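hey team, just a heads up i'm posting the complex here instead of the shared drive bc the drive is being weird again. everything in one block, sequence lines first with there labels, then the predicted structure for the whole assembly after. its two chains so it's a bit long, scroll down
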Amino acid sequence: MNKRPSSLKLLANQIGYQNRRFRRNVMAAFFTLAFPLMFLLLFGALFEGVDIAPGVEVAAAQFYAPGLAVFAAVSATYTNIGISTAISRDEGILKRTRGTPLPPWIYVGGVVGSGIVLAAFGAALMLTVGVLAYGIEFDWANLVPAVLTFVLGVASFSLLGLALASVASSGQSAPALAQATLLPVAFASNIFISVRNNPPAWLELLGDVFPLKAFADAFFACFDPFREGSVYEPWLLARIAAWGVLGALVFWRKFTWEPAVGGPTRSRRRR
Amino acid sequence: MPAVVVENLVKDYGTLRAVDGLSFTVEQGEVVALLGPNGAGKSTAVEILEGHRTRTSGQVTVMGADPATGGAAFRDRIGIVLQECGIERELTITEALNHYGACYTRTRPLDEVLELTGLTDLADRRTHQLSGGQKRRIDLALGLIGDPDLLFLDEPTTGFDPSARRQAWDMVRGLRTLGTTILLTSHYMDEVEALADRVLVINQGKLVAQGTPDELRAGIADTTLVRFDQPANGGTVQELFGDLTGTATAANNRIEIRTTNPTGDLHRLTDWALKHDQELGHLEVTRPTLEDVYLDLIGGDENE
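-- predicted structure starts here --
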Protein backbone atom coordinates (compact mmCIF):
# COMPACT_ATOMS: atom_id res chain seq x y z
CA MET A 1 0.00 0.00 0.00
CA ASN A 2 1.43 3.30 -1.05
CA LYS A 3 1.45 6.24 1.27
CA ARG A 4 -0.40 9.44 0.55
CA PRO A 5 2.11 12.18 -0.45
CA SER A 6 3.09 14.33 2.54
CA SER A 7 1.51 17.75 2.98
CA LEU A 8 4.90 19.45 2.85
CA LYS A 9 5.76 17.83 -0.47
CA LEU A 10 2.34 18.67 -1.89
CA LEU A 11 2.71 22.28 -0.75
CA ALA A 12 6.17 22.55 -2.33
CA ASN A 13 4.73 21.13 -5.59
CA GLN A 14 1.91 23.64 -5.55
CA ILE A 15 4.24 26.61 -4.98
CA GLY A 16 6.49 25.41 -7.81
CA TYR A 17 3.46 24.96 -10.07
CA GLN A 18 2.12 28.47 -9.43
CA ASN A 19 5.60 29.95 -9.91
CA ARG A 20 5.97 28.15 -13.23
CA ARG A 21 2.60 29.38 -14.43
CA PHE A 22 3.58 32.92 -13.45
CA ARG A 23 6.94 32.75 -15.23
CA ARG A 24 5.25 31.71 -18.45
CA ASN A 25 2.63 34.41 -18.30
CA VAL A 26 4.14 37.49 -19.92
CA MET A 27 1.38 39.89 -18.94
CA ALA A 28 1.48 38.92 -15.28
CA ALA A 29 5.25 39.27 -15.21
CA PHE A 30 5.00 42.70 -16.84
CA PHE A 31 2.49 44.15 -14.41
CA THR A 32 4.10 42.62 -11.36
CA LEU A 33 7.79 43.27 -12.04
CA ALA A 34 8.35 45.52 -15.06
CA PHE A 35 5.73 48.08 -14.07
CA PRO A 36 7.26 49.01 -10.67
CA LEU A 37 10.77 48.78 -12.14
CA MET A 38 9.73 51.23 -14.84
CA PHE A 39 8.59 53.68 -12.16
CA LEU A 40 11.83 53.24 -10.28
CA LEU A 41 13.91 54.08 -13.35
CA LEU A 42 11.60 56.94 -14.31
CA PHE A 43 11.77 58.53 -10.86
CA GLY A 44 15.51 57.93 -10.85
CA ALA A 45 15.82 59.99 -14.03
CA LEU A 46 13.53 62.75 -12.74
CA PHE A 47 14.80 63.24 -9.21
CA GLU A 48 18.38 63.09 -8.14
CA GLY A 49 18.98 64.20 -4.63
CA VAL A 50 16.96 65.79 -1.89
CA ASP A 51 18.44 68.54 0.26
CA ILE A 52 17.43 67.58 3.75
CA ALA A 53 19.32 70.41 5.38
CA PRO A 54 21.94 72.82 4.07
CA GLY A 55 24.79 70.65 2.85
CA VAL A 56 23.05 67.33 3.64
CA GLU A 57 21.85 65.53 0.54
CA VAL A 58 20.17 62.13 0.41
CA ALA A 59 19.43 60.19 -2.76
CA ALA A 60 15.74 60.67 -3.60
CA ALA A 61 15.57 56.94 -4.26
CA GLN A 62 16.07 56.40 -0.51
CA PHE A 63 12.42 57.53 -0.17
CA TYR A 64 10.73 55.99 -3.16
CA ALA A 65 12.63 52.71 -3.70
CA PRO A 66 11.22 51.10 -0.51
CA GLY A 67 7.76 52.36 -1.49
CA LEU A 68 8.08 50.83 -4.96
CA ALA A 69 9.39 47.60 -3.38
CA VAL A 70 6.15 47.52 -1.40
CA PHE A 71 4.18 48.26 -4.57
CA ALA A 72 5.87 45.35 -6.38
CA ALA A 73 5.14 43.10 -3.40
CA VAL A 74 1.47 44.15 -3.36
CA SER A 75 1.23 43.61 -7.14
CA ALA A 76 2.66 40.10 -6.68
CA THR A 77 0.17 39.24 -3.94
CA TYR A 78 -3.04 41.28 -4.03
CA THR A 79 -3.23 41.91 -7.80
CA ASN A 80 -1.60 38.73 -9.04
CA ILE A 81 -3.37 36.32 -6.66
CA GLY A 82 -6.72 38.04 -7.14
CA ILE A 83 -6.59 37.96 -10.93
CA SER A 84 -4.97 34.56 -11.45
CA THR A 85 -7.29 32.84 -8.98
CA ALA A 86 -10.38 34.38 -10.57
CA ILE A 87 -9.18 33.29 -14.03
CA SER A 88 -8.36 29.79 -12.79
CA ARG A 89 -11.87 29.57 -11.40
CA ASP A 90 -13.40 30.76 -14.70
CA GLU A 91 -11.39 28.21 -16.63
CA GLY A 92 -12.55 25.40 -14.35
CA ILE A 93 -9.03 24.74 -13.09
CA LEU A 94 -10.16 25.23 -9.49
CA LYS A 95 -13.03 22.81 -10.03
CA ARG A 96 -10.70 20.26 -11.56
CA THR A 97 -8.33 20.62 -8.62
CA ARG A 98 -11.19 20.22 -6.16
CA GLY A 99 -11.92 16.83 -7.75
CA THR A 100 -8.43 15.53 -6.92
CA PRO A 101 -7.28 14.31 -3.49
CA LEU A 102 -5.28 17.53 -3.01
CA PRO A 103 -6.52 19.12 0.25
CA PRO A 104 -8.05 22.55 -0.56
CA TRP A 105 -5.91 24.35 2.01
CA ILE A 106 -2.76 23.12 0.24
CA TYR A 107 -3.94 24.60 -3.05
CA VAL A 108 -4.61 27.91 -1.29
CA GLY A 109 -1.27 27.59 0.52
CA GLY A 110 0.44 27.14 -2.86
CA VAL A 111 -1.20 30.29 -4.23
CA VAL A 112 -0.20 32.34 -1.18
CA GLY A 113 3.28 30.78 -0.94
CA SER A 114 3.97 31.49 -4.59
CA GLY A 115 2.70 35.07 -4.17
CA ILE A 116 5.08 35.59 -1.25
CA VAL A 117 8.05 34.18 -3.20
CA LEU A 118 7.25 36.50 -6.12
CA ALA A 119 6.76 39.45 -3.77
CA ALA A 120 10.17 38.81 -2.19
CA PHE A 121 11.75 38.58 -5.62
CA GLY A 122 10.07 41.79 -6.82
CA ALA A 123 10.97 43.75 -3.69
CA ALA A 124 14.55 42.47 -3.77
CA LEU A 125 14.79 43.54 -7.41
CA MET A 126 13.63 47.10 -6.62
CA LEU A 127 15.95 47.44 -3.64
CA THR A 128 18.94 45.96 -5.48
CA VAL A 129 18.46 48.38 -8.37
CA GLY A 130 18.02 51.13 -5.77
CA VAL A 131 21.32 50.25 -4.11
CA LEU A 132 23.32 49.68 -7.29
CA ALA A 133 21.96 52.49 -9.48
CA TYR A 134 21.05 55.18 -6.95
CA GLY A 135 23.13 54.36 -3.90
CA ILE A 136 20.35 53.99 -1.36
CA GLU A 137 21.55 52.96 2.06
CA PHE A 138 20.37 50.21 4.34
CA ASP A 139 21.42 49.59 7.91
CA TRP A 140 21.77 45.81 8.17
CA ALA A 141 20.84 46.03 11.83
CA ASN A 142 17.32 46.62 10.55
CA LEU A 143 17.20 43.38 8.55
CA VAL A 144 15.04 41.43 10.99
CA PRO A 145 12.40 44.16 11.41
CA ALA A 146 12.40 44.76 7.63
CA VAL A 147 11.82 41.05 6.91
CA LEU A 148 9.14 40.66 9.59
CA THR A 149 7.31 43.80 8.44
CA PHE A 150 7.51 42.58 4.86
CA VAL A 151 6.22 39.09 5.66
CA LEU A 152 3.27 40.45 7.63
CA GLY A 153 2.47 42.84 4.79
CA VAL A 154 2.59 40.28 1.97
CA ALA A 155 0.64 37.74 4.05
CA SER A 156 -2.14 40.29 4.60
CA PHE A 157 -2.17 41.38 0.96
CA SER A 158 -2.24 37.71 -0.14
CA LEU A 159 -5.39 37.25 1.93
CA LEU A 160 -6.82 40.42 0.39
CA GLY A 161 -5.97 38.98 -3.05
CA LEU A 162 -7.97 35.85 -2.19
CA ALA A 163 -10.80 38.12 -1.02
CA LEU A 164 -10.61 39.97 -4.36
CA ALA A 165 -10.92 36.65 -6.24
CA SER A 166 -13.87 35.79 -3.98
CA VAL A 167 -15.86 38.92 -4.82
CA ALA A 168 -14.85 39.27 -8.50
CA SER A 169 -17.66 37.90 -10.63
CA SER A 170 -15.29 36.68 -13.35
CA GLY A 171 -11.71 36.53 -14.50
CA GLN A 172 -12.47 39.44 -16.79
CA SER A 173 -13.73 41.76 -14.07
CA ALA A 174 -10.92 40.86 -11.65
CA PRO A 175 -8.18 42.96 -13.35
CA ALA A 176 -10.42 46.04 -13.42
CA LEU A 177 -11.40 45.51 -9.81
CA ALA A 178 -7.77 45.04 -8.79
CA GLN A 179 -6.47 48.16 -10.54
CA ALA A 180 -9.46 50.30 -9.54
CA THR A 181 -8.85 49.49 -5.90
CA LEU A 182 -5.04 49.52 -5.89
CA LEU A 183 -4.02 52.52 -8.02
CA PRO A 184 -6.07 55.32 -6.37
CA VAL A 185 -5.03 54.08 -2.96
CA ALA A 186 -1.39 53.89 -4.11
CA PHE A 187 -1.44 57.63 -4.90
CA ALA A 188 -2.52 58.32 -1.34
CA SER A 189 -0.02 55.93 0.20
CA ASN A 190 3.51 57.31 -0.33
CA ILE A 191 4.14 54.99 -3.25
CA PHE A 192 4.41 57.22 -6.33
CA ILE A 193 4.35 60.60 -4.62
CA SER A 194 5.11 61.59 -1.09
CA VAL A 195 2.08 62.73 0.87
CA ARG A 196 4.06 63.20 4.05
CA ASN A 197 3.78 67.02 4.17
CA ASN A 198 0.30 68.47 4.72
CA PRO A 199 -1.72 66.47 2.18
CA PRO A 200 -5.39 67.37 1.63
CA ALA A 201 -7.52 65.85 4.35
CA TRP A 202 -9.38 63.48 2.00
CA LEU A 203 -6.13 62.16 0.58
CA GLU A 204 -4.78 61.59 4.05
CA LEU A 205 -7.99 59.79 5.02
CA LEU A 206 -7.79 57.56 1.92
CA GLY A 207 -4.26 56.58 2.88
CA ASP A 208 -5.09 56.06 6.53
CA VAL A 209 -8.13 53.85 5.98
CA PHE A 210 -6.53 51.33 3.62
CA PRO A 211 -3.53 49.17 4.51
CA LEU A 212 -1.16 50.15 1.68
CA LYS A 213 0.14 53.32 3.30
CA ALA A 214 0.59 51.49 6.59
CA PHE A 215 2.66 48.85 4.76
CA ALA A 216 4.70 51.45 2.84
CA ASP A 217 5.37 53.57 5.94
CA ALA A 218 6.19 50.61 8.20
CA PHE A 219 8.60 49.23 5.59
CA PHE A 220 10.13 52.67 4.90
CA ALA A 221 10.82 53.02 8.64
CA CYS A 222 13.47 50.31 8.20
CA PHE A 223 15.16 52.48 5.51
CA ASP A 224 14.65 55.90 7.14
CA PRO A 225 18.16 57.38 7.50
CA PHE A 226 17.03 59.83 10.21
CA ARG A 227 15.16 57.42 12.39
CA GLU A 228 16.41 56.71 15.88
CA GLY A 229 15.42 53.90 18.19
CA SER A 230 13.19 50.96 17.22
CA VAL A 231 12.11 50.79 13.58
CA TYR A 232 9.01 48.73 14.39
CA GLU A 233 5.69 50.49 13.89
CA PRO A 234 3.29 48.49 16.08
CA TRP A 235 0.25 50.61 15.28
CA LEU A 236 0.80 50.37 11.51
CA LEU A 237 1.51 46.62 11.75
CA ALA A 238 -1.74 46.13 13.67
CA ARG A 239 -3.65 47.97 10.92
CA ILE A 240 -2.04 45.76 8.24
CA ALA A 241 -2.89 42.61 10.21
CA ALA A 242 -6.49 43.77 10.73
CA TRP A 243 -6.95 44.10 6.96
CA GLY A 244 -5.45 40.63 6.53
CA VAL A 245 -8.04 39.24 8.94
CA LEU A 246 -10.79 41.04 7.02
CA GLY A 247 -9.49 39.53 3.77
CA ALA A 248 -9.47 36.07 5.34
CA LEU A 249 -13.09 36.52 6.47
CA VAL A 250 -14.29 37.58 3.03
CA PHE A 251 -12.40 34.65 1.50
CA TRP A 252 -13.88 32.25 4.05
CA ARG A 253 -17.45 33.42 3.47
CA LYS A 254 -17.48 34.10 -0.28
CA PHE A 255 -14.92 31.93 -2.04
CA THR A 256 -16.17 29.30 -4.49
CA TRP A 257 -14.32 26.67 -6.52
CA GLU A 258 -16.89 26.57 -9.26
CA PRO A 259 -17.14 28.88 -12.28
CA ALA A 260 -20.13 31.25 -12.13
CA VAL A 261 -23.20 29.74 -13.74
CA GLY A 262 -23.39 30.91 -17.33
CA GLY A 263 -20.01 32.56 -16.96
CA PRO A 264 -17.26 32.29 -19.53
CA THR A 265 -15.54 28.93 -19.60
CA ARG A 266 -12.13 28.38 -21.07
CA SER A 267 -11.93 32.14 -21.44
CA ARG A 268 -8.76 33.53 -22.88
CA ARG A 269 -6.34 34.88 -20.39
CA ARG A 270 -6.20 38.64 -20.43
CA ARG A 271 -4.80 41.16 -18.05
CA MET B 1 -19.41 -4.26 -2.68
CA PRO B 2 -21.00 -2.22 -5.49
CA ALA B 3 -18.98 0.77 -6.73
CA VAL B 4 -21.92 3.13 -6.37
CA VAL B 5 -25.09 2.88 -4.28
CA VAL B 6 -27.66 5.67 -4.49
CA GLU B 7 -30.87 5.56 -2.46
CA ASN B 8 -33.63 8.13 -2.61
CA LEU B 9 -31.31 10.92 -3.68
CA VAL B 10 -32.94 14.35 -3.67
CA LYS B 11 -31.44 17.71 -4.65
CA ASP B 12 -33.36 20.97 -4.45
CA TYR B 13 -32.26 24.30 -5.88
CA GLY B 14 -34.59 26.69 -4.11
CA THR B 15 -38.04 25.56 -5.14
CA LEU B 16 -36.76 23.51 -8.09
CA ARG B 17 -36.30 19.81 -7.44
CA ALA B 18 -33.46 18.85 -9.79
CA VAL B 19 -33.10 15.27 -8.55
CA ASP B 20 -36.24 13.63 -7.25
CA GLY B 21 -35.83 10.38 -5.34
CA LEU B 22 -33.20 8.68 -7.51
CA SER B 23 -32.05 5.15 -6.59
CA PHE B 24 -29.60 2.93 -8.46
CA THR B 25 -26.42 0.90 -8.07
CA VAL B 26 -23.33 0.45 -10.22
CA GLU B 27 -21.38 -2.80 -9.81
CA GLN B 28 -17.57 -2.98 -9.93
CA GLY B 29 -16.28 -3.23 -13.48
CA GLU B 30 -19.57 -2.14 -15.00
CA VAL B 31 -19.99 0.62 -17.59
CA VAL B 32 -23.24 2.41 -16.78
CA ALA B 33 -24.73 5.31 -18.69
CA LEU B 34 -27.04 7.97 -17.33
CA LEU B 35 -29.16 9.02 -20.27
CA GLY B 36 -31.56 11.91 -20.31
CA PRO B 37 -32.35 15.23 -21.97
CA ASN B 38 -30.64 18.46 -20.93
CA GLY B 39 -31.88 19.53 -17.52
CA ALA B 40 -32.99 16.00 -16.58
CA GLY B 41 -30.82 16.13 -13.46
CA LYS B 42 -28.14 13.69 -14.59
CA SER B 43 -25.23 16.12 -14.25
CA THR B 44 -26.46 17.23 -10.83
CA ALA B 45 -26.70 13.61 -9.71
CA VAL B 46 -23.20 12.83 -10.98
CA GLU B 47 -21.72 15.94 -9.35
CA ILE B 48 -23.14 14.78 -6.03
CA LEU B 49 -21.45 11.40 -6.53
CA GLU B 50 -18.17 13.17 -7.36
CA GLY B 51 -18.31 15.26 -4.18
CA HIS B 52 -18.68 18.55 -6.09
CA ARG B 53 -22.18 19.16 -4.73
CA THR B 54 -24.02 18.50 -1.50
CA ARG B 55 -27.34 16.66 -1.52
CA THR B 56 -30.61 17.70 0.03
CA SER B 57 -31.44 14.19 1.26
CA GLY B 58 -30.90 10.51 0.55
CA GLN B 59 -28.01 8.08 0.87
CA VAL B 60 -24.98 7.98 -1.42
CA THR B 61 -22.04 5.57 -1.18
CA VAL B 62 -19.23 5.71 -3.74
CA MET B 63 -16.34 3.22 -3.41
CA GLY B 64 -17.48 2.62 0.16
CA ALA B 65 -17.37 6.31 1.14
CA ASP B 66 -19.82 9.18 1.40
CA PRO B 67 -18.64 11.70 -1.24
CA ALA B 68 -19.75 14.62 0.94
CA THR B 69 -17.35 13.66 3.74
CA GLY B 70 -14.92 11.24 2.06
CA GLY B 71 -12.23 13.87 1.51
CA ALA B 72 -8.82 13.00 0.09
CA ALA B 73 -9.10 9.24 0.67
CA PHE B 74 -12.29 9.14 -1.39
CA ARG B 75 -10.96 11.38 -4.19
CA ASP B 76 -7.84 9.25 -4.37
CA ARG B 77 -9.88 6.42 -5.88
CA ILE B 78 -11.98 8.27 -8.45
CA GLY B 79 -11.23 10.06 -11.70
CA ILE B 80 -13.41 12.87 -13.00
CA VAL B 81 -13.71 14.03 -16.58
CA LEU B 82 -15.97 17.06 -16.65
CA GLN B 83 -17.04 19.13 -19.62
CA GLU B 84 -16.16 22.62 -18.52
CA CYS B 85 -12.80 22.15 -16.82
CA GLY B 86 -9.97 24.03 -18.50
CA ILE B 87 -6.31 23.14 -18.56
CA GLU B 88 -3.43 25.40 -17.55
CA ARG B 89 -2.41 27.00 -20.80
CA GLU B 90 1.10 27.66 -19.48
CA LEU B 91 1.89 23.96 -19.06
CA THR B 92 2.80 21.18 -21.47
CA ILE B 93 0.74 18.00 -21.46
CA THR B 94 3.47 16.12 -19.60
CA GLU B 95 3.77 18.88 -16.99
CA ALA B 96 0.02 18.97 -16.44
CA LEU B 97 -0.15 15.19 -16.04
CA ASN B 98 2.79 15.17 -13.62
CA HIS B 99 1.31 18.07 -11.67
CA TYR B 100 -2.07 16.44 -11.15
CA GLY B 101 -0.57 12.99 -10.80
CA ALA B 102 1.50 14.17 -7.82
CA CYS B 103 -1.73 14.64 -5.85
CA TYR B 104 -2.57 10.92 -5.88
CA THR B 105 -1.28 8.03 -3.79
CA ARG B 106 -1.11 5.75 -6.80
CA THR B 107 -0.57 6.85 -10.38
CA ARG B 108 -0.86 5.19 -13.71
CA PRO B 109 2.49 5.41 -15.56
CA LEU B 110 2.72 8.57 -17.66
CA ASP B 111 3.61 6.73 -20.88
CA GLU B 112 0.64 4.42 -20.48
CA VAL B 113 -1.77 7.33 -20.00
CA LEU B 114 -0.34 9.16 -23.02
CA GLU B 115 -0.68 6.06 -25.14
CA LEU B 116 -4.22 5.25 -23.98
CA THR B 117 -5.35 8.75 -24.91
CA GLY B 118 -3.27 8.98 -28.11
CA LEU B 119 -1.24 11.94 -26.84
CA THR B 120 2.26 10.45 -26.98
CA ASP B 121 3.35 12.61 -29.92
CA LEU B 122 1.95 15.79 -28.36
CA ALA B 123 3.37 15.25 -24.87
CA ASP B 124 5.70 18.27 -24.92
CA ARG B 125 3.28 20.74 -26.47
CA ARG B 126 1.79 23.58 -24.44
CA THR B 127 -1.91 22.90 -23.95
CA HIS B 128 -3.07 26.16 -25.54
CA GLN B 129 -1.62 25.05 -28.89
CA LEU B 130 -4.00 22.11 -29.10
CA SER B 131 -7.37 21.66 -30.75
CA GLY B 132 -10.62 21.19 -28.89
CA GLY B 133 -10.62 17.43 -29.48
CA GLN B 134 -7.02 17.13 -28.27
CA LYS B 135 -7.94 19.09 -25.13
CA ARG B 136 -10.75 16.66 -24.44
CA ARG B 137 -8.19 13.86 -24.65
CA ILE B 138 -6.08 15.68 -22.04
CA ASP B 139 -9.21 15.85 -19.87
CA LEU B 140 -9.48 12.10 -20.17
CA ALA B 141 -5.75 11.66 -19.51
CA LEU B 142 -6.04 13.80 -16.35
CA GLY B 143 -8.98 11.66 -15.25
CA LEU B 144 -6.84 8.54 -15.64
CA ILE B 145 -3.52 9.69 -14.17
CA GLY B 146 -4.58 8.79 -10.61
CA ASP B 147 -5.30 5.20 -11.72
CA PRO B 148 -8.94 5.44 -10.59
CA ASP B 149 -11.13 2.48 -9.63
CA LEU B 150 -14.14 4.50 -10.77
CA LEU B 151 -14.15 6.97 -13.64
CA PHE B 152 -16.85 9.62 -14.17
CA LEU B 153 -17.25 10.69 -17.79
CA ASP B 154 -19.52 13.67 -18.35
CA GLU B 155 -20.69 13.69 -21.98
CA PRO B 156 -17.31 12.48 -23.22
CA THR B 157 -17.86 13.13 -26.94
CA THR B 158 -20.02 16.27 -27.05
CA GLY B 159 -18.64 18.45 -29.85
CA PHE B 160 -16.54 15.68 -31.43
CA ASP B 161 -16.46 14.97 -35.14
CA PRO B 162 -17.43 11.39 -36.10
CA SER B 163 -13.87 10.02 -36.30
CA ALA B 164 -12.81 11.59 -32.98
CA ARG B 165 -15.95 10.09 -31.54
CA ARG B 166 -14.99 6.58 -32.67
CA GLN B 167 -11.52 7.06 -31.19
CA ALA B 168 -12.99 8.15 -27.85
CA TRP B 169 -15.27 5.14 -27.84
CA ASP B 170 -12.32 2.86 -28.47
CA MET B 171 -10.52 4.47 -25.53
CA VAL B 172 -13.46 3.88 -23.22
CA ARG B 173 -13.73 0.27 -24.37
CA GLY B 174 -10.00 -0.13 -23.71
CA LEU B 175 -10.45 1.11 -20.15
CA ARG B 176 -13.32 -1.23 -19.60
CA THR B 177 -11.21 -4.23 -20.56
CA LEU B 178 -8.70 -3.01 -17.97
CA GLY B 179 -11.44 -3.35 -15.36
CA THR B 180 -12.22 0.31 -14.66
CA THR B 181 -15.77 0.99 -13.51
CA ILE B 182 -17.24 3.81 -15.58
CA LEU B 183 -20.26 5.99 -14.98
CA LEU B 184 -20.94 8.15 -18.02
CA THR B 185 -23.61 10.66 -18.90
CA SER B 186 -24.79 11.20 -22.42
CA HIS B 187 -27.69 12.34 -24.46
CA TYR B 188 -26.57 10.38 -27.50
CA MET B 189 -28.39 7.12 -27.96
CA ASP B 190 -25.78 5.54 -30.22
CA GLU B 191 -23.03 6.34 -27.73
CA VAL B 192 -24.88 4.66 -24.91
CA GLU B 193 -25.62 1.67 -27.09
CA ALA B 194 -21.96 1.42 -28.12
CA LEU B 195 -20.46 1.72 -24.65
CA ALA B 196 -22.80 0.91 -21.81
CA ASP B 197 -23.52 -2.42 -20.17
CA ARG B 198 -26.52 -0.84 -18.55
CA VAL B 199 -28.55 2.31 -19.18
CA LEU B 200 -30.38 4.43 -16.62
CA VAL B 201 -32.88 6.73 -18.28
CA ILE B 202 -33.50 9.86 -16.24
CA ASN B 203 -36.15 12.46 -16.81
CA GLN B 204 -37.19 15.35 -14.57
CA GLY B 205 -34.94 14.07 -11.79
CA LYS B 206 -36.48 10.60 -11.75
CA LEU B 207 -35.35 7.22 -13.00
CA VAL B 208 -37.88 6.31 -15.68
CA ALA B 209 -36.30 3.08 -16.95
CA GLN B 210 -33.17 0.98 -16.58
CA GLY B 211 -31.69 -2.10 -18.14
CA THR B 212 -29.32 -3.25 -20.84
CA PRO B 213 -29.95 -1.66 -24.24
CA ASP B 214 -31.66 -4.92 -25.32
CA GLU B 215 -33.87 -5.03 -22.25
CA LEU B 216 -34.99 -1.47 -22.82
CA ARG B 217 -35.86 -2.26 -26.38
CA ALA B 218 -37.76 -5.33 -25.24
CA GLY B 219 -40.15 -3.02 -23.34
CA ILE B 220 -41.85 -2.24 -26.64
CA ALA B 221 -40.47 -5.20 -28.57
CA ASP B 222 -43.82 -6.37 -29.89
CA THR B 223 -44.54 -2.93 -31.28
CA THR B 224 -44.09 -2.14 -34.96
CA LEU B 225 -43.85 1.37 -36.27
CA VAL B 226 -45.64 2.32 -39.47
CA ARG B 227 -44.75 5.74 -40.78
CA PHE B 228 -45.77 7.66 -43.90
CA ASP B 229 -46.18 11.21 -45.18
CA GLN B 230 -49.39 13.02 -44.37
CA PRO B 231 -51.55 12.46 -47.49
CA ALA B 232 -52.50 15.57 -49.48
CA ASN B 233 -56.08 15.15 -48.45
CA GLY B 234 -55.07 15.20 -44.82
CA GLY B 235 -58.45 15.70 -43.23
CA THR B 236 -59.93 12.42 -44.35
CA VAL B 237 -57.06 10.25 -43.13
CA GLN B 238 -58.09 11.09 -39.58
CA GLU B 239 -61.43 9.30 -40.16
CA LEU B 240 -59.51 6.10 -40.68
CA PHE B 241 -57.69 6.19 -37.33
CA GLY B 242 -60.69 4.91 -35.43
CA ASP B 243 -60.55 1.63 -37.37
CA LEU B 244 -56.88 0.93 -36.52
CA THR B 245 -55.81 -1.21 -33.59
CA GLY B 246 -52.66 0.84 -33.08
CA THR B 247 -52.35 4.44 -31.99
CA ALA B 248 -51.62 7.13 -34.53
CA THR B 249 -49.79 10.39 -34.00
CA ALA B 250 -49.06 13.14 -36.50
CA ALA B 251 -46.05 15.44 -36.39
CA ASN B 252 -44.06 17.37 -39.01
CA ASN B 253 -46.27 16.12 -41.88
CA ARG B 254 -45.51 12.54 -40.92
CA ILE B 255 -47.96 10.10 -39.47
CA GLU B 256 -46.72 7.39 -37.14
CA ILE B 257 -48.75 4.38 -36.11
CA ARG B 258 -47.59 2.15 -33.26
CA THR B 259 -49.25 -1.17 -33.56
CA THR B 260 -49.04 -4.76 -32.35
CA ASN B 261 -51.11 -5.85 -35.34
CA PRO B 262 -49.10 -4.56 -38.31
CA THR B 263 -50.68 -6.83 -40.91
CA GLY B 264 -54.25 -5.80 -40.18
CA ASP B 265 -53.46 -2.13 -39.77
CA LEU B 266 -51.41 -2.00 -42.95
CA HIS B 267 -54.23 -3.67 -44.82
CA ARG B 268 -56.74 -1.09 -43.57
CA LEU B 269 -54.34 1.75 -44.42
CA THR B 270 -53.62 0.65 -47.96
CA ASP B 271 -57.28 -0.15 -48.54
CA TRP B 272 -58.19 3.37 -47.49
CA ALA B 273 -55.46 4.89 -49.65
CA LEU B 274 -56.55 3.02 -52.78
CA LYS B 275 -60.21 3.93 -52.27
CA HIS B 276 -59.42 7.60 -51.83
CA ASP B 277 -56.73 7.58 -54.52
CA GLN B 278 -54.09 8.76 -52.02
CA GLU B 279 -50.42 7.94 -51.84
CA LEU B 280 -48.75 6.91 -48.53
CA GLY B 281 -45.48 8.65 -49.31
CA HIS B 282 -42.22 7.27 -47.88
CA LEU B 283 -44.04 4.39 -46.26
CA GLU B 284 -41.91 2.62 -43.67
CA VAL B 285 -42.54 -0.40 -41.52
CA THR B 286 -39.83 -0.75 -38.85
CA ARG B 287 -38.97 -2.13 -35.45
CA PRO B 288 -38.48 0.54 -32.83
CA THR B 289 -34.86 1.58 -32.31
CA LEU B 290 -33.41 2.38 -28.91
CA GLU B 291 -33.88 6.02 -29.87
CA ASP B 292 -37.62 5.43 -30.23
CA VAL B 293 -37.68 3.76 -26.84
CA TYR B 294 -35.85 6.70 -25.34
CA LEU B 295 -38.07 9.30 -26.96
CA ASP B 296 -41.05 7.30 -25.79
CA LEU B 297 -39.75 7.33 -22.22
CA ILE B 298 -39.03 11.03 -22.06
CA GLY B 299 -41.47 12.24 -24.72
CA GLY B 300 -44.62 12.03 -22.63
CA ASP B 301 -43.46 14.94 -20.52
CA GLU B 302 -42.72 17.18 -23.47
CA ASN B 303 -46.32 16.99 -24.61
CA GLU B 304 -47.76 17.97 -21.27
